[in-house]
Design a protein that fits this description.
The complex is a heterodimer. Chain A is α+β, with helices and mostly antiparallel strands. Chain A folds into two domains: 8-65, Arc Repressor Mutant, subunit A; 79-156, Glutaredoxin, CATH 3.40.30. Helix content of chain A is 43%, strand content 11%. In chain A, strands 2-1-3-4 form a four-stranded mixed beta sheet, with helices on one face. In chain A, a hairpin with a 2-residue loop joins β3 (135-137) and β4 (140-142). The longest helix of chain A is centred in the N-terminal third of the chain and has 12 residues, at 28-39. By secondary structure, chain B is of the alpha/beta class. Chain B folds into three domains: 13-228, NADH-ubiquinone oxidoreductase 51kDa subunit (Rossmann fold, 3-Layer(aba) Sandwich); 244-328, Ubiquitin-like (UB roll), CATH 3.10.20; 333-417, Up-down Bundle (de novo design (two linked rop proteins)), CATH 1.20.1440.230. Helices cover 41% and strands 12% of the residues of chain B. Chain B has a five-stranded mixed beta sheet with strand order 6-5-9-7-8, with no helix packed on it. Chain B has a four-stranded parallel beta sheet with strand order 3-2-1-4, with helices on both faces. In chain B, β7 and β8 (298-299) form a beta hairpin. The radius of gyration of chain B is 22 Å and the shape is globular. The chains are: A alpha+beta, B alpha/beta.
């Protein structure tokens, strides 16, 4: 048995969810979320530990985790900027924001700065079209974005 | 949220503010849980008939009559039945359910318990898109309040009716808004749509009979049950479509945001110019995508259409999830449809070849047209690929990708041709 790396809090949260579902495998998405909240990304060890907890094959965990874009299967920066570039946001200038961030951070979309501080990503529609352009900064929405608002955010972090 | 013109009665939007969130507000200001109390004294058939009378049609996009959907659930079932709320809200241009969940979470909870009683289900799930992290937490808090006061749990309001409710977060996949993709995701699988039949009403979540309803649909239920199906039906201006609707307006208007209006009461033109203040910088209008990005586009001369399901169908587009994206003259429509197509190519689950391959090819062709490397036959090629996707896939994502491409290419052909290299190149 490999030593556990997920916290007691993880196991408590999961055990609480067990009676909420008629099958154990239904815990997979909640477990991946909970683990990512703790570790910020899902390493091989973490995925294996989840497989052991749910009692499914490790490949099944990977098959599911890789289907969903929110699960980080490689390390991300401390600040994960996910800028929506879908229809409503490009109508409001989202592509200029992406370009601006790429220049300012010196990285292309989809990558992380060398100091591991920022990860920049293009995002599909966030459901904040009335306040476009919008992005997520880690778990929070930032709406009605402008280049100067973006500069402020980057400077603050 | 913009101030509404006083002309029409609204039921939701006046409550879209932080103060409305706690249970106390819901009880004091919205007659909260009165409908549930009433429903627990009614038979399931009484409830389903009232919902049928209301002419409530699904607010997620397909517009299926809600009461009829509930009526499909078998009375007796060896397997447990489920009420699932589709809170995946990921149709580009749509942002109404987010406000319903963060400002009036108890309205959704009450609607779900009533739905549970109506179909004989004791378990419900709110499948919420993963990005709505904050909203999921707010729902959890509201659910805890409801458990503490006996609106949820083993003995709802002392009647012996049991109903448990759990928030289940998605993780970034548009396809999970498709109801069977959603159910797979709820079960801990990849969110790939299932072959239908069986429909969820026969075999849905965990193999049990299941109703899957959109957030706004379920939020209408407490009002319908308290004030009567007829009251709700009377809002509608067209036959068989009742209630108010939350219209999500985005893009090039002066006042984007949510607008609540009776179904079919006004036209797209009126919404844009009388409610949203007209086009940004008073530019001329170029196009309107009227029902989320999956809806075929309308040109500036096609917007005198009433905002309801049937009139939009007659105009060969759809009201869908009522996400209305407005495009001003001067914005590159080829760039817009390319971005929309990139979205479908990214979100295709890959099960059906026409969708998986077709969306990618459409994206690539639109990309080369954008880059000035288009070929003269590319517009015909796009139409041909779209035709090969349309109606040839398991779920509606294929149609959703094809319809917009067909409509943009057909209605804005000169915009595409203007990008072709001079004289046109050959294959």
């Amino acid at each position: 048995m490999k030593p556990k790396t997920l916290s007691a809090k993880f196991y408590e949260a999961m055990d609480k969810l067990v009676p909420r579902y008629p099958t154990r495998v239904a815990l997979l998405l909640p477990a991946l979320h909970q683990a990512q909240e703790e570790k910020r990304w899902l390493s091989d060890e973490t995925l294996d530990e989840i497989a052991t907890y749910i009692d499914i094959h490790p490949a099944q965990v990977r098959e599911v985790a890789s289907f969903y874009t929110m699960y980080n299967l490689k390390p991300v920066g401390k600040f994960h900027l996910k800028i929506c570039t879908n229809a409503a946001c490009i109508l409001r200038g989202a592509d200029e924001l992406v370009e601006h961030c790429e220049k300012k951070l010196g990285i292309a979309c989809g990558s992380t700065t060398a100091d591991q501080l920022f990860t920049l990503a293009e995002e599909e529609c966030l459901g904040a079209c009335g306040t476009a352009p919008a992005m997520m900064l880690n778990d929070d929405y930032v709406e009605n974005l402008t280049v100067s608002k973006m500069d402020e955010i980057l400077a603050r972090h | 949220m913009e101030a509404q013109k006083g002309k029409w009665e609204t039921i939701y939007i006046q409550h879209f503010r932080e103060e409305a969130r706690p249970l106390k507000y819901y009880l004091d200001q919205m007659e909260g849980y009165q409908a549930l109390k009433k429903c627990l004294g009614l038979t399931p058939d009484d409830i389903i008939n009232e919902v049928k009378k209301s002419n409530l049609r699904g607010r997620g996009g397909a517009g299926f009559p809600t009461g009829t959907k509930w009526g499909f659930i078998p009375k007796q079932s060896p397997k447990p039945k489920y009420v699932v709320c589709n809170a995946d809200e990921s149709e580009p241009g749509t942002f109404k359910d987010r406000d319903l969940m963060r400002y009036t979470p108890h309205l959704l909870i009450e609607g779900m318990v009533i739905a549970g009683h109506a179909i004989g289900a004791n378990v419900g799930y709110i499948y919420i898109r993963g990005e709505y992290t904050r909203e999921a937490k707010l729902l959890d808090e509201a659910i805890n309040e409801a458990y503490a006061k006996g609106y949820l749990g083993n003995d709802v309001l002392g009647t012996g009716f049991k109903f448990d409710l759990t928030v289940h977060r998605g993780a970034g996949a548009y396809i999970c808004g498709e109801e069977t993709g959603l159910l797979n995701s709820l079960e801990g699988k990849r969110g790939e749509p299932r072959v239908k039949p069986p429909f969820p009403a026969q075999a849905g979540a965990f193999g049990g009979p299941t109703i899957v309803n959109n957030v706004e649909t379920l939020c209408a239920v407490p009002f319908i049950m308290r004030k009567g199906g007829e009251w709700f039906a009377k809002f509608g201006k067209f036959e068989k479509s009742g209630g108010t609707r939350l219209f999500c307006v985005s893009g090039h208007v002066k006042k984007p945001g949510l607008y609540e209006l009776p179904a079919g009461a006004i036209t797209i033109r009126e919404l844009i110019y009388d409610y949203c203040g007209g086009i940004l910088d008073d530019k001329p209008l170029k196009a309107v995508i009227p029902g989320g990005s999956s809806a075929p586009v309308l040109t500036a001369s096609e917007i005198d259409v009433a905002l309801d399901i049937e009139p939009m169908m007659k105009a060969k587009t759809m009201l869908g999830s009522a996400g209305i994206m407005v495009v001003a003259e001067g914005f590159d429509v080829v760039k817009l449809i390319r971005r929309i197509t990139k979205f479908y190519a990214h979100e295709s689950c890959g099960q059906c070849t026409p969708c998986r391959e077709g969306c990618r090819w459409m994206e690539e062709i639109l990309g080369r047209i954008m880059d000035g490397k288009g070929k003269r036959q590319d517009t015909d090629m796009l139409l041909s690929i779209a035709d090969n996707i349309n109606g040839k896939t398991l779920c509606a994502l294929g149609d959703a990708a094809a319809g917009p491409v067909i409509s943009f290419v057909t209605k804005f052909k000169p915009d595409f041709e203007a990008k072709m290299p001079a004289g046109g190149t050959h294959a």
